[in-house]
Design a protein that fits this description.
Blueprint lengths: L5 E6 L3 H11 L6 E7 L3 H10 L4 E3 L2 H6 L6 E4 L6 H10 L3 E5 L6 H14 L3 E4 L6 H11 L6 E8 L6 H4 L8 H4 L9 H11 L4 E8 L8 E9 L5 E7 L7 E7 L2 E6 L3 E7 L3 H7 L9 E6 L7 H15 L7 H20 L3 E2 L4 H11 L3
Parallel strand pairs: 1-2, 1-4, 2-3, 4-5, 5-6, 7-10
Antiparallel strand pairs: 7-11, 8-9, 8-15, 9-10, 11-12, 12-13, 13-14
Helix pairs in contact: 4-5, 5-12, 9-12
């Protein structure tokens, strides 16, 4: 039996927490209402009291749980290192959870949360709103249909994350091992690492070259060149940075039937070979035989209201049983990729995935001063 309306509590009232609270309170998420907001600081509590009449204000997570009868689901929008801890408390209280990226900072901990949600028979969703982008949805449709044949190479340059010290210093937990559990990879890149594994599946090995504080006065990563390897022959390169400008966002995929490109998350270009490369290799008799191809842009809808669509999907899931766009296990996959990239960088070698979770956690704790 499903509920009639999802009563949501937003846990965290920072930048994104405020946006989610506003969306829900403003009626932008069909089937969901804002029951409460957890905010520990006085200025935020005053804003909630003035601008969100009728919404409960919780002093902390324990206060929220003490009023658990007021809400059905928790939208967790707190610093990264607290996601698993808060998620476990909510799950054990029988609350459904929707977690902003990342699911956590250590794959082993996220695995525990995924299992706890399963055992508690509550839903665990991820805020991977980029999956709602029409261009990536079209790319997935084409790849699933086999439009490229056998894929051999993926190259993605995404360095549109330029950030200055004003951003990195906007909260005491940001851009630090202790507060954020990393930098560029555990923060901005979670979205596109998720899209990577959504489109191409989980890689089998990783080799990463990361720069720490290349553009900033901190110890975490702000530049990355990562290679992903697959047993099926795919070789991928993922390049990202938060210190370069102007940036580009260009995904290119090559297969036997041609090339697929997604430009700036809004344009989809399919460049199709006249015949597959493996077939042409068998029949061609010319030394410098040229394989013809033709390119076309595939129209897609504008990228609008991604967050609203994602939250609406979570509400629809709880109300009608509709499949989640991204569940907690999908969040685990992205953390596995991230942990692998970090450990590969620290050890200077190619590593199979998943990496030793206990080893990764021990090194991370050392960086956190624990």
């Amino acid at each position: 039996m499903y509920m009639e309306q999802v009563r949501a509590a937003v846990i965290g009232f920072g930048g994104m927490g405020r946006q989610y609270a506003q969306m829900i309170y403003g009626g932008e998420i069909e089937g969901m209402c804002l029951a409460g907001v957890c905010c520990r600081n006085k200025p935020g509590q005053e804003i909630l009291g003035k601008e969100y009449p009728g919404v409960s204000v919780y002093q902390d997570v324990e206060d929220a749980l003490a009023h658990g009868e007021e809400f059905d689901a928790a939208v967790i929008v707190t610093p990264h290192t607290s996601h698993v801890e808060i998620g476990l408390k909510m799950v054990r209280a029988g609350k459904h959870i929707l977690v902003d990226k990342p699911a956590g900072v250590c794959a082993g901990d996220v695995r525990t949360l995924v299992q706890a949600a399963k055992e508690g028979k509550v839903s665990f969703g991820m805020i991977f709103n980029i999956r709602m982008t029409p261009a990536f949805q079209k790319a997935k449709e084409l790849l699933d249909q086999g439009a490229l044949g056998k894929i051999s190479r993926v190259a993605w340059i995404c360095n549109t994350w330029y950030r200055t010290p004003a951003y990195h210093g906007s909260a005491p937990w940001r851009s630090s091992w202790e507060g954020e559990g990393g930098g560029l990879l555990i923060n901005q890149s979670q979205h596109y690492l998720d899209i990577w594994q959504w489109l191409f599946g989980m890689p089998d090995a990783v080799l990463a070259t990361l720069d720490y504080g290349k553009f900033n006065d901190f110890d975490v990563d702000d530049n990355a060149d990562i290679q992903f390897f697959y047993r099926n022959g795919i070789h991928g390169t993922f390049i990202t940075s938060s210190g370069e400008n102007p940036g580009v966002n260009r995904l290119e995929v090559w297969g036997t039937k041609g090339r697929l490109a997604v430009e700036d998350t809004s344009r989809v270009i399919l460049d199709e070979n006249v015949m597959p490369t493996d077939e042409f290799a068998r029949v061609n008799q010319e030394i410098y035989g040229t394989l013809g191809h033709h390119s076309r842009e595939i129209p897609v809808e504008p990228n609008e209201r991604g967050y609203q669509k994602l939250l609406s999907n979570f509400a629809d899931h709880l109300l009608t049983g509709a499949p989640l766009v991204a569940d907690g296990y999908e969040g685990l996959k992205t953390v596995i990729m991230t942990n692998g990239a970090y450990l590969s960088s620290w050890q200077g070698k190619k590593l199979g995935l998943p990496v030793d979770e206990a080893e990764f956690k021990a090194i991370l704790r050392g960086k956190q001063g624990n």
